[in-house]
Write a structure and sequence with these properties.
This protein is mainly beta. The protein contains 3 helices and 16 strands. It has a 16-stranded mixed sheet that branches.
Length: 242
């Protein structure tokens, strides 16, 4: 499977304050990125588009929902809503992954939640990861008989879907060398594979203008490569998934 993404448009609302880059930049408004898409599906590549919407919001770490009212202890998260749309020539696909990652990287080494929905003309699926003590709880609701409804626990590992937020907050903290990771939810759903922890290799190549982070999965032969601005706020410029 091959997918190629190129940045078409990126803009932000608000100003960057070098004295507190994360707080001043990310808490001044939302950022929208739009990419062109070359999506592999059913033995061919199909054009489409992707939108990344980054925004901060208060989040309840226990209930793992947005804090909207009442007196509760919440944490500040950077949320990524990643939307993907493409046509296979017969019918259309629409997907969305929402990942919630606390901006306090030291207190919270991982995201707290990640959800993914896939809609096409056959039906729809919904998958959710919730952070729990020592690992993750994963729920899957699918119209496929083989997948059915699932509610399982997985051991401690990185989520591939939280890597994008880690890049935007602090790419130097990305996992390098051999590490444990759960592949991206869309990769799981498109391949109809069970959620599992795999061993991968992380490589960070730092360059003056644009850096590259690469995740290699030796067991599956898959490689995800993400290009991003070396300087803060580390805008993601494109990626390949082969």
């Amino acid at each position: 499977m091959r997918a190629l993404f190129l940045l078409c448009l990126s803009f932000s609302f608000g100003l960057l304050d070098a004295s507190d880059r994360i707080r001043e930049f990310w808490f001044s408004g939302a950022e929208i990125n739009r990419y062109s898409l070359d999506q592999a599906r059913y033995g061919a590549n199909h054009p489409g588009h992707v939108e990344f919407i980054f925004v901060t919001e208060p989040f309840l770490p226990d209930a793992q929902v947005k804090h909207e009212f009442g007196q509760h202890d919440s944490v500040d998260v950077l949320k990524l809503n990643a939307l993907r749309t493409f046509n296979t020539g017969i019918y259309s696909y629409r997907t969305m992954t929402s990942t919630f990652r606390p901006v306090d990287l030291e207190a919270y080494p991982h995201a707290l939640k990640s959800t993914t929905s896939v809609q096409d003309w056959c039906g729809q699926t919904f998958q959710q990861f919730n952070r729990e003590e020592g690992g993750w709880r994963m729920q899957l609701f699918s119209y496929f008989e083989k997948e059915g409804d699932q509610n399982v626990s997985l051991p401690n590992a990185w989520l591939e879907d939280e890597i994008w937020l880690q890049i935007r907050l602090d790419p130097s903290s990305l996992p390098k060398g051999n590490f444990q990771i759960i592949p991206g939810a869309l990769n799981q759903r498109f391949s109809h594979k069970e959620a599992e922890v795999l061993t991968a290799t992380g490589e960070l190549e730092v360059k003056p203008d644009q850096s590259l982070y690469r995740i290699r999965y030796p067991d599956t032969g898959r490689t995800l490569s993400i290009s991003f601005d070396t300087q803060f706020p580390h805008i993601i410029r494109g990626w390949t998934d082969v």
